[in-house]
Write a structure and sequence with these properties.
This protein is an alpha+beta fold. It is 50% helix and 10% strand.
Length: 360
Amino acid sequence: MKFAFTDDQLALASTVRQVLAAHCPAAAVRQAGKAAPAAERLPAWPQLAEIGFFGMLVPEPHDGLGLGLADAILAFEETGRAALPGPVVETAAVAPGLLGDDDLLVRLAEGRLRVSVRLGDQVYAPDADLADLLVVERHGELRAVPAGSVRLTPQAGVDPVRRLFSVAFGSPEAVDGGKPQLGRRLDVSAVHALRTATVAVAAQLVGLARHLLETSVEYAKSRRQFGAPIGSFQAVKHQLADVAIAVDFAAPLVYAAALAVDRAGRTAPAGGVDSAGPTVAVGEVDRAVSAAKAAAGEAATRAARVALQVHGAIGYTGELDLRLWLARVWSLASAYGDTGVHRSRLRAAILGTPDLTRWP
């Protein structure tokens, strides 16, 4: 398959990267992890809204750009590279395919609506305290619930910036008819939304891995031991090379999965990489999604481990901004299915069983 990003897709990613470099530095990410007003916990969101980031996947009739996931995948990778706080994937990637209300889509495209979701096997909703609307899967149905109508309980997590919350609906006594307020039912399937979220998070993991690799290489060039930069030591060079190889293998799988999700969607994406191609079978798109998330999770986890090894003990401390990216890797690696889950799904798709086979 011939696969190459267009100039427009590359330009979109470059613009997002420039905005994040100017408005979401490491200091802003660090501040977002503290108890602060919502505005301080969402650096660069107003600027991203101005360039149409949150309307990338929103149809053009609703003031969006009408792009496909493959068109936007590099932009999501840049949000991972910058460790952008907030429900980014849930708002910009998942919500456009779930919300059918014209007004909601317009508000989403303009950056005036933040959305968090709890889909599939996810137990908690990420950054739900920053969301205006929650989309929750309950008994196989998707429901859109105003954030103020549910009870959010903070849960312990590895990433103080990407906070997790359990969602509880109102008590039956508080609602007419003796039933809790469940919000508005969405007549859409959660399958496409879950695939989109998984691939977008995989792209963020690739971006995180790239940042950690770049940071580790720069540190290895400047840190000296025994009269030489530690980057000149074979053991360090091999570790960094392994990370580079893992990232280079994971990224194409993520891009291919984004294209597969577009083709499997109910509507064809407008423009973008090979968007006029044929549709794909259900098993093939799920296989592509799992391959992308497994490879991206492994690459980012390896990048985090090597970054700690290269930096040494100081890498664990709060003195370095490195910990912000490490925590985001560990958080997103388990989001929408960890590597073990997706490896199991791949085994089931290829071998017909999710069980590991041990050969004598």
